[in-house]
Amino acid sequence: MTKMKVRGAALALALAGTAISGALSAVVAQEATFVLTARWVGAPTYNPIKATKLNTATTLIYDRLVLQDADQSFHGQLATSWETSADGKQWTFKLKPGVKFHNGEPFNAKTIEWWVPQFKGTENAFTVEAIERVEVIDDLTVRFHMKNPDPNLLSNLASSFMCIPEPKSYQALGDKFGVSEAVGTGPYKLQQFTVGQQTVLVRNDDYAWASDLSKNQGPAKFKKLTFREIAEESTAYLELKTGGADLIVAVPTDFLPRMQADKSIKVVTIPGTELVYMPINTSVEPFTDIKVREATAFAVNQAEIMKSLYGGLGEVADTFLISSLQESKVDPKYKISYDPERSKRLFDEAGWKLGPNGIRVKDGKPLQVKFWAQNGTEFKRLAEVLQAQLKAVGMQADITILDSSTINSQYRKKTDHQLAVRAYLWTNADIVDWFFSAKRLGYPNVSMFNDPEAEKLNDIAMNKSRNWDERVVNFTKYHEYVLSQYPFAPIYQPVQLFAHGKRVTMPEKIRGSGLSSQSIVDIEPVN
Amino acid sequence: MLQFAIKRLLLLVPVFLAVSLVIFLIIHLVPGDPLDHIIQVGSSPEQQAQMIARYGLDQPLIAQYLRWLGKVVTGDLGDAIVLRQPVAKLIAENLPHSLALGGLAFLFSTIIGITVGVLAASFRDSLFDRAVMGLILLGSTLPSFWLGLLMILMFAVQFEWFPVSGARSWEALVLPVLTIGIGGTALIARVTRAAMIETANRDFVRVLYAKGLPFWRIQLRHVLQHALMPVATILGLRIGWILGGAVTVEFVFARPGLGSLLITALGQRDYPLVQGCLLMLAIAVMLGTLLGDLVQAAMDPRLREVMGAR
Question: How far is the C-alpha of A170 from the C-alpha of A192, rounded, in Å?
Answer without folding.
Answer: 17
